[in-house]
Design brief:
The complex is a heterodimer of chains A (413) and B (369). Chain A has 17 helices and 14 strands. With 413 residues, chain A is an alpha/beta fold. The radius of gyration of chain A is 25 Å and the shape is globular. Chain A starts with a helix and ends with a helix. In chain A, 46% of the residues are buried. Chain B has 369 residues and is mainly alpha-helical. Chain B folds into two domains: 51 residues; 235 residues, MetI-like (MetI-like fold). Chain B is 69% helix and 3% strand. Chain B has a two-stranded antiparallel sheet with strand order 1-2. Chain B has a two-stranded antiparallel sheet with strand order 3-4. The mean pLDDT of chain B is 88. The chains are: A alpha/beta (413), B mainly alpha (369). At the A-B interface, helix 3, helix 4, helix 16 and helix 17 of A face helix 3 and helix 14 of B.
């Protein structure tokens, strides 16, 4: 009896081992791509790109893993020493991850450099090293509700608009809906990234070019913040929560605000969930002295430094961001701008020039959303003070001084 | 003689062997649970204590060379004192200190509000549900317990819908008090004003009318800021959590109540005690150990509140719902400062432990009376 049991165990073990080694002995490399889930269509488009890549490279198998809470999952993957081969990198995370040494350098590994937008390549260059090729980008622009503008008899925003035009329109468009619900002219989220374009338009900045000095405490900053907060205090703008929305796009879609300052992501959101909304898109208004600025939010395909298959990883990344991969995505007409400049025309046609042109125009003077490691502390303090400033409990002066003080501390670390 | 002692010796040996066998069997049975306990509880806690003395960023693999440096008590100094010394120069960390004490303030107000409320209300509900005259006890028990077993994320989202500025709560109040029009609607989820400040304002006491003593700074916050009370949004979350946890506490009280023999109540009513007196003089004292348990459970849970903050407010508005547990998450994941997050967590552990010990001393003293 006992001997029979033993024999069975040995046979089973042998089968298992041979099965396992047979799997391991399969030809070719296997790489993992980890990212976050976008809309179903965008996820499908990514799978189509990956399938096309695998068809052209039969030796390489790509496992795509789109996770719900990406930030926590990828950080745990890094810390455990078992990162995916390729993963999304938001430009705001680049300094943290580059400093931590988990990103492989892209110097000499990225192809088609002249087909990439220079400003985006710059966004993914840290300490003079280019780390990864951009996968898409979103530019901040001004969305406006055509019906509300028509009803109030105001001309649509265009590229001649200045701060004064924005303010005047917001004032004229503030009112109420038919059932007595508050409507604001402009939605102004209490987030620093929505305010930064105004700072840059006024000629100010947060840090010096080389990130060694804090330049936030300036007259330009006071002017820009006075303008932003002033519209809220005077009653024609406000945070999304004031109009029962979770974010600016939702407030705009529900018709509770006439104008919003969102990026390309709002295109898919509005077209899929609010297809009846008649809206238009213009570049952000300029400073009365003519200063123009916007923000660009971009993500790249990063390759892990700790990598079993670096060459295959770079092959995948170059395909996805090269002219072929970009063309596949561009014709689908997703909101985000595809990485290759050569695909811009296709994208513009698919998305519709009257919406898409303002985003492309804004790309010329868009600032990257990227700050030194640990700067989240500055943003949290600024955002908290900004909310209080909307309520007039904190002076604009103090918001800037507090934020500058925290920035000095973070830089000194 | 030799035979008897031989027999006697064999008996003793076999008994000792049996006990040893039983002990081994006992340990073997416990082994899986012990191993899980060790891997998922003891080792991580030890690791957290160790990491709190380092400047690990939470990203670089820990076992890599140079991924972190041990910095001794610097994380703790940053949180409690607002600065530390490095190679002779003073490195300020006033935001870390301020954020920590804001979180401590918020968590304290939260605990002071929720623990008494949930204990008292749970007790009242348990007494009511325990009454003999109540029909459909099963239904009420289920209904009151139901929120405790529902996903906290789902409840948070539903509360968000209800408490939106134009949502159910505001419109219902408007129905009862027509003068509460949409311009006066309270923005429940985004209002950073402290409750105590609002109450004081009704009596004309404002920041500008109190004396200069209110501007004195302690641990990064002025006295006036310390006296703010929970913000309106924090109050909403406190209501949410009280409602959710009453059920669990009620079930515990119910079990204890049903252990009280009815002869005690009969004796009391024969002596001429009315319902209030029975409740105060008999039920509550007999429930003292259970109350201690419920309060301890409540304290531990409340000090660690995270889910609802994460879903509803992410620490806002203006950091008024920032709790110590949420700060641990923020430091660990948003700010690449996992060492600091570990230090924050350890301080939180010490606080909870101190409260529990304090409570135990307090209760056992009174129990001896």
């Amino acid at each position: 009896m006992r001997k029979a049991h033993l024999l069975t165990l040995v046979v089973l073990a042998a089968l298992l081992v041979s099965g396992a080694s047979a799997t391991l002995a399969r030809q070719g490399a296997e790489i993992t791509l980890m990212g976050w889930s976008s809309s179903t269509e965008e996820n499908d488009a990514l799978m189509a790109q990956v399938d096309a890549f695998m068809a052209a490279n039969p030796d390489i198998t790509v496992n795509v893993n789109l996770v719900p809470s990406f930030d926590e999952t990828i950080q745990a993957a890094f810390a455990s020493g078992d990162p995916p081969n390729v993963f999304y990198v938001d430009s705001s995370k680049l300094p943290d991850w580059a400093d931590a040494g988990v990103l492989a350098s892209g110097e000499g590994m990225i192809e088609n450099l002249d087909d990439h937008y220079p400003s985006l390549l710059e966004a993914f260059t840290y300490n003079d090293t280019l780390y990864c090729p951009p996968k898409d980008s979103s530019i901040m622009a001004l969305q406006y509700n055509k019906a509300m503008f028509d009803a109030a008899g105001i001309a649509y925003p265009d590229d001649t608009w200045t701060w004064d035009d924005l303010r005047a329109a917001a004032e004229a468009l503030t009112g109420e809906t038919a059932d007595g619900q508050k409507v604001l002219g402009l939605v102004t989220p209490p987030n620093i990234e929505r305010w930064l374009p105004f700072l840059y338009q006024a000629g100010g900045s947060v840090l010096s070019e080389d990130w060694t000095e804090v330049t936030l405490d300036s007259d330009e900053a006071r002017e820009a913040l006075d303008f932003y907060v002033g519209m809220v205090v005077d009653g024609f703008a406000g945070p999304p929560s004031m109009v029962d929305a979770g974010w600016g796009g939702e407030a705009f879609a529900q018709g509770r605000v006439a104008m919003a300052m969102e990026g390309n992501w709002v295109i898919s959101y509005l077209r899929e969930q609010f297809p009846d909304l008649e809206w238009g898109n213009a570049v952000l208004p300029m400073h009365p002295d003519g200063g123009r600025a916007s923000m660009v939010f971009t993500v790249c395909y990063g390759v892990a430094a700790d990598n079993d298959n670096p060459d295959e990883s770079w092959q995948l990344v170059n395909f996805l961001t090269g002219p072929d991969g970009s063309a596949m995505v561009a014709q689908e007409g997703f909101g985000v701008i595809p990485p290759a400049m050569s695909a811009a025309e296709t994208w513009l046609e698919a998305i519709g020039p009257e919406i898409g042109q303002a985003f492309l125009d804004g790309a010329e003077y868009a600032h990257k959303w990227q700050f030194p490691v640990g700067f989240q502390e500055v943003f949290d303090t600024f955002n908290a003070d900004l909310q209080l400033a909307f309520d007039e409990q904190v002076l604009v002066e103090d918001v800037i001084i507090n934020a500058a003080g925290v920035a000095e501390e973070v830089l000194a670390r | 003689m030799a035979q008897t002692s031989a027999l006697g010796q064999r008996k003793i040996t076999s008994m000792a062997a049996k006990r040893r066998q039983e002990a081994v069997a006992g340990y073997l049975f416990m082994a899986p649970a012990l191993v899980i306990f060790l891997i998922f509880l003891i080792i991580p806690i030890g690791a957290a204590i160790y990491l709190s003395f380092t400047d690990w960023n939470g990203i670089t693999p820990v076992f890599d060379e140079g991924s972190y440096e041990t910095i001794g008590l610097d994380n703790y100094r940053d949180l409690l004192l607002g600065e530390h010394t490095e190679d002779g120069r003073v490195v300020k960390a006033s935001t870390r200190q301020k954020d920590f004490f804001i979180a401590l303030k918020n968590t304290t107000y939260y605990v002071l509000g929720v623990v008494p409320a949930q204990t008292f209300l749970a007790l009242v509900l348990a007494v009511i549900v325990n009454q003999r005259w109540l029909k459909a006890k099963g239904f009420f028990r289920t209904a009151f317990y139901f929120p405790s077993i529902t996903s906290s994320v789902v409840i948070s989202i539903i509360f968000m819908w209800m408490f939106y500025r134009g949502g159910l709560v505001n419109t219902t109040v408007q129905g009862l008090f027509p003068s509460y029009d949409s311009n006066a609607f309270v923005n429940w989820l985004d209002d950073p004003r402290g409750i105590i400040h609002i109450i004081l304002e009704q009596f004309g006491v404002k920041r500008t009318t109190v004396g200069d003593w209110a501007s004195a700074r302690h641990f990064g916050l002025t006295v006036w800021e310390w006296l703010s009370g929970p913000s309106v949004t924090m109050l909403t979350i406190m209501i949410l959590n009280t409602w959710t946890t009453i059920g669990t506490m009620m079930v515990i009280f119910l079990a204890a109540l049903q252990n009280i023999p009815s002869s005690v109540y009969e004796a009391a009513s024969i002596d001429g005690a009315n319902a209030m007196q029975i409740f105060r003089r008999i039920t509550v004292p007999l429930l003292r150990p259970t109350t201690f348990f419920v309060v301890t459970l409540g304290l531990i849970g409340c000090f660690q509140v995270f889910d609802q903050i994460y879903v509803i407010s992410s620490g806002g508005p203006a950091k008024t719902t920032l709790t110590v547990a949420y700060m641990v998450y923020q430091n660990g994941f948003d700010r690449s400062a996992m060492g600091l997050a570990a230090a924050t967590a350890i301080i939180l552990f010490v606080i909870i432990f101190a409260f529990t010990l304090l409570q135990r001393v307090f209760v056992s003293e009174r129990a001896n009376v």
